[in-house]
Design goal:
By secondary structure, the protein is of the alpha/beta class. About 35% of the residues lie in helices and about 20% in strands.
Length: about 170
């Protein structure tokens, strides 16, 4: 098992090498079939364009910061999550430290500062139910709109289903 990268605070993202990336974003707890579908879509796009495949995840789980009393029990450790993301095609895994500062960040600021500027996103793959920004104010439609102004495209992938139910870490 490889060691997980240190969770980076927003101001520490400048340490990352500057390179154009195709990326996917999520908690990726368990790296279940739904997550694997995102990574497959990321791989297809990156192979076609020559971009680096990057998975962006959060530590600790946002629920432990936002609502500790309702925080989900995690399926995998951070180290295992990073290893699974790499096994399923991520060449690079960026772990963002989820803290009050990140929780309060406006969706447009997240897209601009984190995705476009710090990570040099050229393409972003998300699940159709992806939410981001302060109070989860951003969704796939907003990210697609912001991406147009920030020079990245967005692919919102339909949720994977198993036995008629959407695959999710909370259901697992």
């Amino acid at each position: 098992m490889s060691e997980a990268p240190k969770p980076l605070a927003r101001e520490e993202l400048a340490r990352l090498p500057r390179k154009p990336r195709a990326l996917t974003i999520g908690n990726f707890d368990g790296v279940h079939r739904g997550h694997q579908v995102l990574l497959e879509a990321l791989g297809v796009y990156a192979s076609r364009t020559g971009l680096s495949r990057c998975a962006v995840t959060f530590y600790p789980h946002p629920g432990t910061v936002l609502a500790p009393e309702r925080a989900p029990r995690l399926l995998t450790s951070l180290e295992d999550r990073v290893a699974l993301l790499r096994r399923f095609g991520a060449e690079e895994v960026v772990v963002l430290r989820f803290d009050e500062s990140l929780a309060r960040m406006d969706a447009a600021v997240f897209a601009s500062e984190i995705l476009a500027q710090s990570l040099d996103a050229r393409h972003v793959v998300i699940g159709q139910n992806f939410r981001f920004g302060n109070r989860q104010s951003g969704n796939a439609a907003l990210l697609r709109q912001l991406g147009e102004d920030l020079s990245f495209t967005v692919d919102a992938v339909p949720l994977a289903h198993w036995r008629g139910m959407p695959v999710s870490s909370s259901e697992i």
